[in-house]
Every structure is written in C-alpha cells, then in structure tokens.
From TrEMBL:
Keywords: DNA-binding. PROSITE patterns: HTH_TETR_1, HTH_TETR_2. One of its GO terms (molecular function) is DNA binding. This is HTH-type transcriptional repressor AcnR. It comes from the Bacteria. It holds the Pfam family TetR_C_5-like. Residues 10-70 form the HTH tetR-type domain. Residues 33-52 bind DNA. SUPFAM superfamilies: Homeodomain-like, Tetracyclin repressor-like, C-terminal domain. Gene3D superfamilies: Homeodomain-like, Tetracycline Repressor, domain 2. InterPro entries: DNA-bd_HTH_TetR-type_CS (IPR023772), Homeodomain-like_sf (IPR009057), HTH-type_Tx_Regulator (IPR050624), HTH_TetR (IPR001647), Tet_transcr_reg_TetR-rel_C_sf (IPR036271), TM_1030-like_C (IPR049488).
Amino acid sequence: MIDKFENLPEDKKKRILDSAIEEFAVNGYDKASTNSIVKKADISKGILFHYFGSKKNLFLYLFDYCINTLIDKYYLLDDIEAEDIFERFMRVSIKKMKVIQDEPLMNKLVFSAITNMPKDLKEELTVRHNNYTSKYLPEFFEKVDTTNFKEGIDSQKAIELMMMCMDGLSSKYIQRYKDVSMDEVMNNYDEIMEDFNKYLDILKFGIYKSGESK
C-alpha cells in the first residue's frame, strides 16, 4: 500500500503529507480527523485508506517521515564540530532552533508523539524512538572531551542532565522567537548566546574541575 503512495506525483504526495501533518500536529493523534485530512488534500477517504490502510499506519508513516526530514535538515546545516561538550551543546541547540523554526508542524508532531504517546501506538513509537536515538546519539558524542569533568562525576549521567537542560533552553528560545523570521533571530544571535552561556556556566560549575570552566 505504501509503495502506491510513494509512486504518486510529488505535488499530490506533498498535498496529502502537508494536510495530514497539520491535522495530527494541531489536534494530536486521538482527536485528528481523517475527514479533515482528505478534505484539505482534496482526495477521497477511500483513497487515503487505500494508500495507508488505517489511521494508525498513516500516523506511523508521518512520524518516520517527519523525524527523518528534521534530521536531514539538521545535518545540512554547516557547522564546526567542537570537542568541548558545552560548545557542542550550544551549536547543536542553535541548529535545532533553525530546523524547528523552518518546520514547526513536523517538530510538533514528533515531539507530541514522543512525550504523549497514544496507547495503541506506544509500542511502535517506543521502538522507533529508541532506534533513532541509538543510531544518532552516539554520533553526537563522538570525540567529546570529558577530561575536564570533576573526579567521580558519572560522565553519562552528566551528559544526560545537560541534554535535558539544553532541550529546555531550546524550547525557551523557540517560544520567544516563534513569530519572527530566521533573519531576525540571527540578528539577535549575540543576545541569545549571552543568555545561553549564563546557563552553561552554571552547569560547568557543577561538572567541570575548578578552574577548568571555559
């Protein structure tokens, strides 16, 4: 069934994808209406289910499509890979902010699917999320310098804590700049970095050896 959808002309495929992504992102899986999707996409409900079989299959397809698109856009952004973990987190957060602002509905669909998994999709989404994490997370931590961590610090737990903090900060900046253009965001780059570094300094104080904060 999915092969038939994949072989559609690009404009028709994009129309269906855009309609479905918007519906699920705005209303969530449980409240999303396939009637609304087919109306926006200008197709029949029978055709939609001919391609995907069920609402569940459609959502799982969209989850994979969105997360792969976001990842591809992230890696297309040129950047210098920093060895210092705090510098790397800062660069990663800025890149994520750019991608999320470019694709807010895709990000909302993926984020809500992961944080509020529908009961009948929990098993499939958990497997998918774990697969993506196991595939891409090790790449992020390649060549990370942890030599400046305090003695006795569990580096893995420290990294996990930092990830949670950075995700929270990214959400803060995304919310602050959600109604402005990317050009305007970049015009405020120095202000964002100054604010960002204040939080990083607090984390460094707890993780790095005395005198090793950079």
